Every structure is written in structure tokens, then in C-alpha cells.
Amino acid sequence: EVIKNIKIKYIILEKIIFQSSSHFEKIIKFSNKKKIKIFVNCPRRTYKIFKFIKNKLNKTRGIIKLSLVGNNWGLCSNSIHFLDLLFYFTNFEEDYIMDQSLNNKILRSKRRGYYELKGKVSVYNKNFKFFIQDSNEKKNIRLKISRGDEKYVIENDKANKNFILKNKGSNMKLFKIPLQSELTLKLVNNIINKNKYELTELKDSYNYHKILFNIFNNKLIKLLNKKLKNCPIT
Hints:
alpha+beta
């Protein structure tokens, strides 16, 4: 309704963008017609720490591996951030294999009418390997990124608002965790004043969302024992 009636050049949307492929396709088609650029606010690709890692990974060859393991980090809700990060490091390809070992217990999301799951998810092909796990066991959230000899482990030091980056030689670097308010202001300023687009465009993020729809919707259909038009994750 907004883009039908108001002239708009740019939109930034929050994940999960839509709960169905048909909604994505409708808005992408309409935004193309209206010449509106729509971005998805998965901002990790704009962080200094991940720009640093990408620069290092680009200097070597091999399969890109990204894994995230931890407890209570919101598998259904937050997986999109890490898929987006994976495809910041490497190109998205339609040819991939999906696998899951999700628990058979449905958890209520903090938002009414939506669900969460725990367990494991993997997506892979000959060029990338993506693995995430939300465990029942209490584990510190640990993100691992590697390619060839370049291997990095990232942990959050929330008390001091830092990312702790460790590489294969046990060297350690600290990167500030950016405040969302400051980050959004910078991203908006770059878009409006510099034509600099750092966030993922909607048409690309749609490909990443489809992966999650396939995995989570299929599991929820079995557990709820009913058809789902929309994937109830947010």
C-alpha cells in the first residue's frame, strides 16, 4: 500500500521479509515496475570484522566453510543472517544440497503465532559448506569461517561490546560490535548521499529465504500435521 501511493526510491526491510515465495515474487515484480531499490537489513556483511575476513579469504582458494554452533540463538529467526554472510564471502549457486536434523519439539517464538526449532541444518555444494546448530546443551555461540589455510573463530564479548577474532595461529584481534542505531544511520547515509549499497538486495535475499522455507516449512508441516501456506518463522 505504501509503494502504490507514495514515490519512494529506497526501502530497507527487516528479516524475515515475507513468509512465502509468492509474496517475495509479487513485491519484487512491483518494485521493478516502480524502479524502487529494496534492501534487506542483514548487516553483518557491513561489519569491519567480516570485511577483514573476506579480504583474507580472497587471497586463498578452496571451499568456503561457515559454521555457527551455540545455544538459544534462534535458529529459525536468525539463520538468514548467517546465510547472507556466507554469500557475502562466496557467490550464491542454485545447485546445492540441503540436510537437516531438527528436533521434533516445536518451541513458541517470542512473537505470537510464530515458531522456533532446535537442531542442525546444513547446506552445501562443491564450493561452500554451511552448518548451523542450536543445541539443547549450554554452549557459547561460536562462529567459524575458513577457506584453505585461512581459519577464523569469532566469539562475542558482550560485556565489552567486542568481537573476539582468533585465527589458526592463536593470534587474537578485537573488533567493536557496532550499535544498530549508528550502523543504520551510516547505511542510510551511504545509500542516499553516495549511491553506495552495502546491504543485500531483495531479489538476492529471496534465494536465501527459499532455502530456509524449504527446510523449516517441511519440518513444521510434519510436526503440526497440517498444510502451511506461509512459513511461520519471523
